[in-house]
Amino acid sequence: MVKNPRTPLRLRSHDAPATGKPDPSAVDEELHVAQDGLAGAPALVLIHGFAASGRFWDPLVPALADSRRVIRVDLLGHGRSAKPAGADYRIPEQGRRVGEVLDRLGVRHAVVAGHSTGGSVATALTERRPDLVTALALINTGPRLDAHTPQGPVNRLLPMPVVGRLLWRLRTDSLIRRAAATAVTRDVAIPQAVVDDVRGMTHHAFTAASGAAVDYLRQRPLPERLAPLGKPLLVIFGDQDRRWRSSSAADYRLVPGARIEMLAGVGHSPPLEEPLRTAELLLAFAAAHTPHTAP
Fold first, then answer.
1. How many CB atoms lie within 10 A of CB 291?
2. Phi–psi pair at 265, nearest 5 degrees
3. Considering the entire predicted model, what is its pTM?
4. H-helix or E-strand spanning residue 47
5. Tens of pLDDT along 205-221?
């Protein structure tokens, strides 16, 4: 069995020279990685969404780890990973880092699942490393920018330099829980880990990561990115999502062979609201698209 929930991996900054010597201009890109399950089993990589961490997937891990090597990465700026002010938080760079983590772990092939913005990171990873990604699962990941549902005036104020920083300093557990309530529809308690992840972010990481997610979708919708890649695609979407219009899930039909699973009465966070059903869908999908030779 593999269980190492706090493995730090230090990556080289993208622009740092590969000399092996310290580079004073390089930023700290230490990422935290959690591994659970069977060491020799096929890899299932879980990528969390914006302002979350690998702990978001906790309700699913016990079911997944029985037959998979489950790998969770805290994206740069999130969770227990570093939050450098000088880092590149663009989605392709986040995808690059996940790919480098998998290389360091010796993973040659993996089924990759992403929730919300994590689905964009998973898409960027697939674009960059089609050799590594066997199949892709997107959970409540908005396909294009105009499918997003506005979340209120505070979200528009947070990116502002002065007002945004002031609001960030004033955030409390209660305010965070109130904002996070739009991530669920059913009567599900917001885990303390979700609150802690938001409190642990810097204002710069929060705004930079948010802007990066918007820019990636603005440049090109996800279905258009995925269609030419030829990867099996599973789309899971709660039909009561209050952050992305659930009807937009149909856009993924542009991807040949895409399978779309709509979860009735579920909101933006199926791993919190329907963990067993979400795990069942991921396991069945992974089993159908795992190479005969395990990584």
1. 12
2. 75, 10
3. 0.90
4. strand 43-47
5. 999 999 999 999 999 99
